[in-house]
Specification:
The chain is of the alpha+beta class. It has twelve helices and 20 strands.
Amino acid sequence: MMRLIIWLLTLMWMATPPAAAQQFARIDVASAIICPATGTPPSFSEPGCKPITNNRIDTQNRHIWLQATLDIPEAMLESSEPLAVYVRAKAASRVFLNGVLIGENGVPGPDALSETPGLMDTSFFFERSLLKDQGNVLMLELSGHHSILDLAYPFHVLGIGYYADPNAYIMRGYINSLLPFGVLIGGALYFGALAVRRRDGLTSILVPLISLFAAAQLVAEISRGLIAYTYPFQDVRLLLVLFFASAGGLCLLLHVVDTFVTKRKALVMLAGMATVGLAIVLTPGFDGKAIMALQVPALIGAIIARLNAQKGDKTGFAYAGVLILFALLAIPAGFLDTYFYYCVAGLLLFLFAVEIRKNSEERRLRVKEQARADRLQIALDESKEAASPSQIKISSQGKVKMISTDQISYCKGARDYVELEVEGHGTILHDSSLTQLEQTLPSTFLRVHRSYIVNTQFISSLEREQSGSGKLLLSNGTEVSVSRRILPKVRKVLR
C-alpha cells in the first residue's frame, strides 16, 4: 500500500505544470538605506539612517523612509510591455521612482490613527520615461501600525516587473494546488457522509476531519491570490493557516491513538498534544509552525504504530512507514509551498485506503451476521411450524379453503393467479398475486425467483448453473429456478 501512495504522490506532482516565470528586477539590498520618518523626506545621510541588515525591512509599528537603487535588465528596457513597481509588505506605502511620486497604497503615518492600511500586495504603474539605464532610485514612505503579529520578515518583495494584477500573479503559483485540493475536499465530503451513515461517533469522523482541515488550511493559504486584502488580514491569514494545521494534526494524532492504543488512551493523547504544542511554540516562523503542527503528530503516530506492529499487527507497519515518509517529505516544504499539500494529499490517500478497507470489512461482517441471523430465524420458524403449522386462506374457484403451510412445497406465480404445490393435493390455483401471497406466508418460505416462493423445509440442495443463476432440488423431486440476483442471498440463508 505504501508503494501505491508513493506512486500517486509522484504522479500528482508530475501532472501539474510549473508556475509561469516573470522577469523581475529586485532592489539592490546592499544599497538600501532606512531612515526614521519625519515631516519631510530625508536626505538619507542623517545620523538615524542605517543600511538594511539581514535582508530585513521591518515596517511593523514603525514609520520609516526607505531608499534603494536597482538596475533594469536590458530585455525589460527594450520591451514595449508596461512596467510597474511591486510592493508586497505589511505596510501602507507612498512610492517615488527617480524622485517622482508614482502612487500610494493606503496612507502611511506616524501612528495608527493617522495611517490608512494599504493592500498586502500591490503594483504601481509608471511611465517608461521615468527609467534610467542604470542606477534607478526607489524611495518609499512606509508604516505598519495596524500589525497584529510581529513577524520576522514582514516585507516580502520590492522591485520592478511587467505590469499585472499582483493577486493574479501570486495565484499562478497556486495553480498546482488544485489537484491536492480536489483530493482533500472530495475525501472530506465522501468519508464525512460515510461517517454520518455509520454513526460510530468521533472515531469515524476523524479522517474526514483531517481532510477538511487540510482543505481549509489550503484555502486560507491561497486566499492571498484570491482576494486583495489590506495588510492586517495577513496576520489573520497566518493564524488561520496555523489553526487549521493544528486542528488537522490533532485529528491525525487522535486517529492513530484510537486505532492502536488500547490502554491509557487519554494519557497518551495528552502527552502527544503537549509535545506537539511545545514543538509549535519553539519553532520560529509561521511556515515552520504550520508544518510542525502536522509533522510532529505524524512522527508520534509512527512511533505508536511501530510499537503496535511489534505485537503482530500488520496495519501498524503500514501506518508507521507512511507516517515516517510523510514527515521526511515535509522537511523541505515551506510556507506558500503547494508541495507540502501534495505530501498531505498523499497521507490522506493512505488514510482513505485504510478507511475503504475497514468499511468493506465491516460491510462483509454485517452481511455475514445478517445471514447468520436469517438462518437462525428460519430454524426457529421451522421448529415452530413443525410444532404448530400455520394455516392460510386459499380462494380457489369461488371457494375458500384453509391449508396448512407445512403441506405447501412451493408457490408459482401465474399472472393474476398462484399455483400452490400442496403435498397430497397436487396443484391448487389461488386467486391472488405472488406478492400478496408472500405477505401472508411464514418466514420459512423464501422468495427465490420473481415467479417462485419455496418452503425451506422441502429444500434438499442448491446448485449453481453456468449462466450464473441457480437451481433448487426439492425433497419431492421438483426443480425450482433461482434468479442470479437472489442466488447469493439464498446461498447464505441455506448455509
